[in-house]
Description:
With 428 residues, the protein is an alpha+beta fold. It has four domains: 19-44; 55-169, DNA Polymerase III, Chain A, domain 2, CATH 3.10.150; 181-297, DNA Polymerase III, Chain A, domain 2, CATH 3.10.150.10; 303-421, DNA Polymerase III, subunit A, domain 2 (DNA Polymerase III, Chain A, domain 2, Roll). The protein contains seven helices and 26 strands. The protein has helices at 6-52, 60-71, 125-132, 187-197, 252-262, 315-326, 377-385, and strands at 55-59, 85-91, 94-100, 104-111, 114-117, 119-124, 139-145, 150-155, 158-163, 181-186, 212-217, 222-227, 231-237, 246-251, 268-273, 277-282, 285-290, 309-314, 335-341, 344-351, 356-363, 365-366, 371-376, 391-396, 403-407, 415-421. The chain has a nine-stranded antiparallel sheet with strand order 14-11-12-13-26-25-24-18-22. An eight-stranded antiparallel sheet has the order 6-2-3-4-17-16-15-10. Strand 3 and strand 4 form a beta hairpin. Helix 2 crosses helix 3, helix 4 packs across helix 5 (252-262) and helix 6 runs antiparallel to helix 7. It starts with 5 loop residues before the first helix and ends in a 7-residue tail after the last strand.
Amino acid sequence: MYPARPPARTAARTINQFFFLIFCKFFVFVNKITQIICQIFCTFVFQKLKKLKMNFTVSSTELLRGLLSGLRVISNKTTTPILDNFLFVLKGNSLEVTASDSETTLRTVISVDEVAEEGAAAVPAKILTDSLKEFPDMPIEFKTLEDNNTLQISWATGAQKIPFFPADYYPELPVLDALAVTVTVPAETLSAGLGYTLYATADEVLRPVMNGVLFDLTPEATSLVASDSHKLVCYTRIDIRSEQKSSFILPKKPAAILRSLLSKSDSDVKVTFDGKNAHFDFDGCLLVGRLVDGTYPAYRTVIPKNNQNKMFISRTTLLNAAKRVSVCSNQATSSMKFSLSFNTLVISAQDTGFSISAHETLPCQYDGEPMDIGFKSTFLIEILSNLPYEEVCFELADPARAALIVAAEDHNPDEDICSLLMPIRIPN
C-alpha cells in the first residue's frame, strides 16, 4: 500500500510559507533601514543647504575695519586654497569673521544691522577687502545664491557678485587640551611687553626658538623675553603671576598681530595655552597661534650681575648722538666705540675705507675704571629707541663682557625692563 501524498504537500507548503514570512520581514527591515538612511541623508543635505544660506546688512566701514585685521593673518604663499578666504559665520546679529594661515588664526566679531537668514560661507579675502576700500560708510547687503555658489553684494546704487565656498571646507580652530594653563593679563600691559621685546627677536632657520617671544610664567612673576644672540630684552611684571611654572614661545607673526590689536583695547586678555597652541581672548577677538616647538635658552644665566662700573646718562641725549655718529661707521660692521672716563663719555665711529669719522663728547655720571668698549651702533640705537626711561644706566664689567642697560631713575615698582647688548671688537 502506497503512502498518501497530501501530507507531503502540506509540509512543503509550510516550509514555503515560513521562508516567505522570513523574506517579508527582511524586506520590511531593509525598507525601514533605507527610510532611516534617506531621512538622515535628507536632513544632512538640508542642513548643508541651510548653512549655505546667508542674508544680512552691515556697515561697510565696520566690516572693512574687522576684515583688515584678518587680512594680516592670510599668507600670500599658502598651499591651501581655502585659506585665501575669510570664513563668515552669521549667528543672530553677530558676524564671526575668521582668517587663518594654518599657524595663526584670528576670529573677530562684527555687529550687523539686519539679519534675514543665518548661515556660513567662505568668501575670497582680497576681492572683498579691495572692494570695500572703495566704499564710503554705507549699508551693504550680503546674500548667498545657492544655485551657483555666488555671493551677491548690494548697495543703494549697484551690486556685485563674487564666488563663495562651503564653510565646511574651512579648517576648525585648534582645541586646547585639558591641561591648558590660563592667566589673565591687562591689554595695556601685554601690549607694552610685546612692544619692548618684539624687535629683539631673531630670523634664524637653524634655531627657530629664537624667532619668537618667550612667555615665562612663574608664581613670582611673568616675563616676556626676546633675543637674537646679539641683544636680549627681558620685560618682567611681578604683579602678574601664574599658579604654576610654565612657558611658551609665541612666533613673531602672531605676536606682531596681537600687539597691533591690543593697542586699541583697554580690557583684560585671557591667555590660555597648552604644548601646541595659545589662545588670546579679548574684546570679541580670539587670536590663536601655533607655538614654536623647542626649549628656549636659559636666558637668566647670561644676564650679568654685580657689575661694578656704572654709567648714568640721558637716554635721549645718547640716542641722538649715536644716530649722528653712526653715519660715519663702517657699513659692514656698524661699529661704535665708547671711551669712558670720569663723568665723560666719548662715542666715535670711523670707516677707514672711505676716510670718514665722527666723534661726540657727552656728559654722564661715571666714576668707574677708564674703559674702551665697542658696540654695534644699529643694535644700540634699537635698544635706546624702545626704552621708556628718561635716564638709563649702563652696567659694565669689562670690554669683553655684555653691557646691561636698565632704568636709572625710579619707575613702576611692578615693572622691570633690562636689555643686554653684546660688545664687538673695536677696529684698530
